[in-house]
């Protein structure tokens, strides 16, 4: 395997798969045993909205090889303060308990801290999807203290507790910087199990295979992270890589695409399908468009036309009655133990 | 049917066919096999690494394919997997070498 180097985004390279239509067409071109709607047997319907996930943009300080957002330093799509205010207005009209802020590196969005403060002022729980290395940049070194002050749950990406696998996926030096950032989060009280400052690690496979059993891996990760790096955390989420964007490009170029999609289809789990996150989440894009999940967002598949499609028209009842938009990539969330932003679903 | 090689990776997916002529025996095997690899006193990940090492010792290409993937899926990395292969290699090498004592016994027994 080659040494990991930082890749430009699909967009910056003008790669064919920079287009969401091209991604969906590539997935649809493959012969598979059955379609997702056949596997489900009946339409997938929303159940409720427990989580408002806000993707504040595609700007990121990393260009991970598997990124489903095609995020990177060259991306300029970030949520304006006006659109954030629309999200807050919608939130204030509901009792949705949790706001899950993601990106890109969400912290790079100019009004990120203001958004966190406003959501907390509404009394809602905030999750920040953090790539860790952002905490090492000079302008963001105080984020651990900011997170602790606002009781933000920090959900961090780390492919493996060993250096090699992490750097292979996320770039040279990312592991070392991530460990330093985790230690700083520990220093302000995160992950000690008593402070209530919740620190979650997210692992996803470094390659064309499914993640392992979450509970079993969590016990080992807690032991290894403590022994190897003196880092503590509260929970480990395992997430299946979704065959879209840069990971889709890698699957195709490495000759793994058909085999991986077949593995996802073969591992379809009806119990996982019942617990998929889109049934209890609404995903908001940087421009305010509403989606069933972050993956549909990247494939530019907005919510069903029967529901409002922009946050300015947010109607919780209509959104909770919606049918979820599906396509072949949805096999990624329903394989094995299931996969969601909260880890395994079964 | 033309088969260019003795081993064909697609045959791994047909493993279950071995039960077609002895279903009860196959069921006993696969039930036992599944139980062996479940979390127990050893974790499923540790058992997967043992299986990977044994796969190299018995030189089974199907098993190497299956347990390379399985070990990764269970959270092992290439460093750990490589060490497991070295364990298998050390036992194989040591097993040959320790028979050198038998060789010496025999040689000494029949030598003047």
From TrEMBL, chain A:
Superkingdom, taxonomy of origin: Bacteria
Gene Ontology molecular-function annotations: catalytic activity; iron-sulfur cluster binding; metal ion binding
Cofactor: [4Fe-4S] cluster
Keyword Metal-binding recorded: yes
Protein name: Radical SAM
Annotated ranges, domain Radical SAM core: 54-200
All copies of domain Arsenosugar biosynthesis radical SAM protein ArsS-like C-terminal, residue ranges: 210-344
Species: Sandaracinus amylolyticus
UniProt cross-references to Pfam families, sorted A to Z: DUF3641, Radical_SAM
Keywords, in A-Z order: Iron, Iron-sulfur, Metal-binding, S-adenosyl-L-methionine
UniProt cross-references to NCBIfam families, sorted A to Z: rSAM_SeCys (TIGR04167)
TrEMBL record, chain B:
InterPro entries, sorted: AhpD-like, AhpD_core, AlkhydPrxdase/COmuclacdeCOase, CMD-like
Domain named Carboxymuconolactone decarboxylase-like: residues: 23-101
First and last residue of the signal peptide: none
GO molecular function: peroxiredoxin activity
Gene3D superfamilies: AhpD-like
Domain of life from the UniProt record: Bacteria
Protein name: Carboxymuconolactone decarboxylase
Source organism: Sandaracinus amylolyticus
